[in-house]
Amino acid sequence: MSTVDVNLLGTVHGGVIMKFLDDAAAAVAARHSGGPAVTAAIDEIVFSEPVRVGDLVHAHAQVNWTGRTSMEVGVRVVAERWDQGGTDPIRVATAYLVFVGVDDQGRPREIPPVIPETPEDERRYREAQIRREHRLARRQAILSSRQLKNK
To answer: Is the pTM of this model over 0.85?
Structure first.
């Protein structure tokens, strides 16, 4: 880790954690879709604890929801404090990212559906649908507002 990876407080810069979780989500999206997938949106990132220099950081990611060409991947980032052996990892960030499967020309391609297998998977699927509905409604509201202003 270099000095550009550390913020003024001496902890790992949030942008470094963002790249880490995007990389983890991209790997899961590509594996699920069977090919390239690109980040289309980030619905939410919550930083709940700082990551200190030297901490062991892990990302856990899974596909929560799929559409025809897009999918939501949830990511949980945890850290093990380098100087505190025998303690449980702490959650440091959570994020929800939207990916689109793309073909060789970069155009959207169909992806396999995700099928919830557990009650936890079903909850994640429902919540991902809510985030999608809100994202689409927000986009429509903004476009409508712009049209009103241009009249």
So the answer is: yes
